[in-house]
Amino acid sequence: MDSIEFLRSPPIDSLALNELYRLSWPRHVERDSWPELERSLCHIWAYAGERLAGFVYVAWDGGVHAFLLDPTVHPNFRRQGLGLALVKEAEQAARAGGCEWLHVDYEDYLDPFYRAAGFRPTLAGLIRLQGG
């Protein structure tokens, strides 16, 4: 992890982010604009030299609630602690932004990862608004 540099809310590099998402999320649709990042509390970019190795962003309600979204690690950098480091960077940013709560939702198989990051399970509700 010594060779990783974390940047908090740098200018958005759509090419690098699309490449990372394409390698990590099979259904990713490339785009030039990322308006949700411009409205977010912060976005954390992890670079190994010139290569984007990881990314996460924190949405918020403008008050005390922050929401961890899309933690993504390049396949060549997985299983080395980068995902947890990204989540910790996001946690620090949310705390520095005055938030009291950091929320995340995830699929069951990710429970060990999020527990290791310090999250504890809670009851939550979800309504799917689009798709099947």
What does the model show?
- The protein is α+β, with helices and mostly antiparallel strands and 132 residues long.
- The protein has one domain (4-116): Aminopeptidase.
- Helix content is 28%, strand content 26%.
- The protein contains four helices and five strands, in the order βααβββαβα.
- The chain has helices at residues 14-24, 35-39, 82-96, 111-116; strands at residues 4-8, 42-48, 51-60, 65-73, 101-103.
- A five-stranded mixed beta sheet has the order 1-2-3-4-5.
- Strand 4 (65-73), helix 3 and strand 5 form a beta-alpha-beta unit.
- The N and C termini lie far apart (40 Å).
- The model has no long low-confidence stretch (mean pLDDT 93).
Q: What secondary-structure arrangement, pairings included, does this model have?
A:
Layout: E1 4-8, H1 14-24, H2 35-39, E2 42-48, E3 51-60, E4 65-73, H3 82-96, E5 101-103, H4 111-116
Parallel strand pairs: 4-5
Antiparallel strand pairs: 1-2, 2-3, 3-4
